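Lab notes, practical 5.
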Amino acid sequence: MENTYVIGLDYGTLSARAVLVCCQDGRVEATAVKPYPHQVMDRVLPDGSTKLGANWALEHPEDYILAMTETVRSVMEGREDLKNAVVGIGIDFTSCTILPVDEAGTPLCCLKEYEGRPHAYAKLWKHHAAQPQADRINLVLEERGELQGIRYGGKISSELLLPKVLQMVEEDPEIYRRADQILEAGDWLTQTLTGEGRRSGNMAGYKAMWLPESGYPDKEFLRQLHPELENIGETKLRGEMALMGQPAGFLTREWAGKLGLPEGITVAPAVIDSHSGLPGSGVSRKDQMMMVVGTSSVLLALSEKPFARDGVVSGIKGGIVPGYYALESGLAAVGDMLGWFVDQAAPESCAKAAEELGMNLHSYLTKKAGELRPGQSGLVALDWWNGNKTPFVDGRLSGVLTGCTLGTKPEEIYRALIEATAFGTRRIIDLYEEAGAQIGEIIASGGIAEKNPLFLQIYADVLGKKIRVSATEQTAAVGSAIYASVAAGAAKGGYDTLGEAVERMSHIHEKAYIPDEENGKIYHELYGLYKELSGMFDPGRNSVMARLLELKSGI
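Output from the prediction step:
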C-alpha cells in the first residue's frame, strides 16, 4: 500500500502548529509553527483604549485563521507530490474557548460595530473573570440537589462554557442576542473548513455539560440562571454532535484552495488539545495515564465507569477513547509558575552565574535544585499561581510559599515550586484511583517532560509511579492527526480503530524514571504537609485569597 498522510493542527494558548504525518508509521514529515499576532489580550483590546478587568483572557479569531493558513501551506511547501496522498485533517484546541458568531459564521469581534466590545472576542480557556457566575451556578445546583451529579462533577469551574455565556448575557446582552451561535473555537474552525454545522461531542461533553442521552442541562435550570438561557441548547448551541472517529465533514473547494489540499478530504471533529495528547503520546492501555506538562498540566486516565468529584470529571463514554470514560483534571500552572519565578523573582546573581556557565536561567536553577535533597530547604508551596482545579475548582485561589527564612536560596524556591506541582498531581491521582483507575505507568509529554529530567524524577518519587516519555515531540498535533486518520477510515488510507492508529503512529522512549524509595518516604511526609497547608486555604473556610482579589480588582 502506498503511504497516505494526515495533517494535525494543534492550537495552543500562544501559537498554533501543524504537522504532516505518515499514516503507516507515524513519521512526521514536516512541522510549522505560527505565534498569534495579538497573543492573549488580558489588559486592553486591539483598539488600545478599551480596558479589560481582572482575570480576563481574550484572543482574536483572525489569529486562528492566519495560523491555520500559514502552517498548513508551510508543511505542504515543496511536497506537492504528497498532496493527493493527504486523506484527512484534524484540529485540537484549548478549551473551553468560546466565540460568538453571526448567521454567516463571522465572529462578532470582526464586525466593525463590535470591535470595542470585549464579549465579542474569543474567551480563552483561562478566562477567569466569570468566577462570580460560576459561583452562582454552583449555588443554584446545590439548592437543586444536583451539584454532585455526573453532569456537574461537584463544582462548576469558571473555565467551562456556561459561566462564560452567563457572564456575556449579564454584562453585554446585546452581544448575546446578536450571536446566531456561540461556538467552541475548535468547532468554528471545523465548520469553516467544511461548511457544515456539526459540533464536537468531546468538547461539549467535557466543557458544556452535554450528555449523549439527554443533551444540555434542562430548561428549568437554565431559566433559573437567566431567562434568556432557557432555550440556548436549541439556539446558540444548536448542532449535530460528532464523536471521535466520526467525520465532522469534508473540506470545501474554497478551503482546499486556500490550504493547498485536496477537496473533499475528511475533517475530524475538533478535540480538546490535552485530550488529543492521549493517542499522540502512545497511551493505549487502561493501566496507563497520560500526563502533559507544559505551561499547565493535564492528566487523563481511562475508566470503565463515570466519576465526578472535586474537579475530576469523566466526561462522556467514548469522548476520547471508544468504550471508555476518561478521568480528567490537571494543574492550572506548571511551566507558567516556574516562568513567573525566573522572570519576576530570581535575583540578578543567578542570571550572571547562568551566563558565565553558558546556560539559560531555567537550566541553571534546575542544575542547582538537583543538588538538593528532598526536604533539605524546609519549604513547601501551593501550586495555585493560576487558580486551583482539584480539589477546590476555584480560579480565585493563588500561590503560597511557606518556610522561607533569610537563608532561603533561589534554587530552593525553584525546587519547592516543582515539588508543589508534583504534590498537586498526586492529589489528582489519589482521586483517580479512588474512582477505580489502576495506574501502573505514566506516559509524559510536553515541553517540560522533554527537557527536564530532574522534574520527572521528582514526579516519579512523589507519585511512586514509573514514568516514561512520549517519543513524539508534538503529541497533541500528532494526536489530532491520528484522530483524522480514524475519521478517514481504512478505506481511504487511514484506520478503522483508534487502537490500530495509536499502535502504528505513536511511539514511547524506552528510558523510564523509576521511583526512589528513600526519597519517596520524605516526599510522603511533605505531601501530608502540602495537604494540611491547602486545607488552611480551603475557600469554603478561608476567604483571604478571594478578598485579596476583590481588593486588587477594586483599585
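Observations recorded by the TA: The radius of gyration is 23 Å. Residues 297 and 331 are 5 Å apart (CA to CA).
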